[in-house]
Amino acid sequence: MINFQYTRANDVADAVRQIAADPTAKFIAGGTNLIDLMKEDVERPTRLIDISRLPLKSVEETAGGGLRIGALVPNSDLAYHPLIERRYPLLASAILAGASQQLRNMASTGGNLLQRTRCYYFYDTATPCNKRYRRGEVRRRVQHEWPRLWQRRHIPHR
Amino acid sequence: MTLARTAASPVAEAIPTPDKIRIVLTVNGVERQLEVAPWTTLLDALRDRLDLTGTKKGCDHGQCGACTVLVDGRRINSCLTLAVMKDGAEVTTVEGLATDGALHPLQQAFIDHDAFQCGYCTPGQLCSAAGLIAEGKARTADEIRELMSGNICRCGAYPNIVAAIKQAMGARS
After folding, report:
1. pLDDT (tens digit, 9 = 90+) per residue, B54-73?
2. I want to staple A70 with a disulfide (CB 3.0 to 4.6 A). Which of A56, B11, B19, B74 is the partner?
3. Which residues in chain A touch residue B80, judged by CB atoms under 8 angstroms apart?
4. Would the CA dihedral through B72, B74, B79, B80 be positive or negative?
5. Fold adopted by B15-96
6. What is the distance between the alpha carbons of residues B79 and A33, in angstroms, rounded to a whole number?
7. Global pTM value
8. Which chain A residues have a beta carbon less than 8 Å from that of B18?
9. Beta strand B90-92 with B20-27: parallel, antiparallel or unpaired?
10. Is B105-172 CATH 1.10.150.120?
11. What is the least distance, in Å, from the CA of A45 to any CA of chain B?
């Protein structure tokens, strides 16, 4: 994990202002996916903007008969929410089928939607992956860098 | 949250060394003040800064559950939590389960049922089980197994762990 700055967002507008001002910053809420990826060096934000204290933790009924779920509602609270249990039992079971209760207590609804792939190649920074590199970089490495590595192996004392 | 400037330390990356951040945690009922770097996990703060080494580091990626603690009464993986994010929170570790020298019913039940072999996962199992009981969602052995799935026991003491938790749940109700 690389060093990074830590700031807190005072409100939603402040959060938007902070992230817009720093292209290498990321929001952190539950952190269950982001900190894991930072430990693996897959994510390397230079600033984390903590949005976990923002008032986005409610589940409200909408006029159209649906539900509006706050981005920071923890997965466990959402799965056990009476309205979700009664009206969207499939969503409740789907949430409870994933991760563990400790992770569900931490993970936010917004973060759940933003989860990155769990693919081995994505997690392994020693392997090329177009989801980690810029578009086309993997192809460039495969075509230009890797052959050179192979050639070097067959030339002694170089 | 107050920021205190500390001496710059050499880092490999061309990122300025961030300020250490002063935080307050109430750990096992005692208020503790400490200054942490932004990247210090709650687990490392507990173990390395507060000398509460009961909480264990297993996988350090939120998969094994050895680092489980209760934050504001909810069980979480302390290895995937930044200490700065929990400024002001109440943390309960395995060291805080017993009261006045008397074992927590879960601790006694784990002994009664021989619910561990090497014991490395046990602090996490105990805190997780305490969280499970507080949640009140598990009633059957199957439900206990499901909701304890975030705690891995490499020795395979699972049947005994489930039996111990059932006993503690019965003692409570």
Report:
1. 999 999 999 999 999 999 99
2. A56
3. 31-32, 35-36, 103, 106
4. negative
5. Ubiquitin-like (UB roll) (3.10.20)
6. 12
7. 0.88
8. 3-6
9. parallel
10. yes
11. 11
